[in-house]
Amino acid sequence: MQVTEEDGGRLNAFAKEPRMEVMDGSEARGGTSKVLFIGGAVLVLLMLAVAVGIS
Questions:
Q1: How far apart are CA 36 and CA 23, in angstroms?
Q2: Which residue, 22, 24, 29, 52, is most buried by CB atoms nearer than 10 A?
């Protein structure tokens, strides 16, 4: 952990963060993201249908 000293003499510890990985566009959009997008759209449509049916 990285430790710094503040003005009042207090110590402040920072956790070590993992390195960031840069992904290109082809890795970001796979089959899983399409399934999640379609599933979310279906869920929204079902909730709208239920709201209309209740009212």
A1: 19
A2: 29
pTM of full prediction above 0.85: no
d(CA 52, CA 44): 12
The C-alpha atoms of residue 18 and residue 32 are separated, in whole angstroms, by 24
Digit-coded pLDDT (tens) for 26-41: 655 667 778 899 999 9
pLDDT digits (tens, 9 = 90+) for 6-29: 888 899 888 888 899 887 766 556
Q: How far apart are CA 44 and CA 24, in angstroms?
A: 29
CA angle, 23 as apex, 19 and 29 as ends, to 5°? Answer: 140
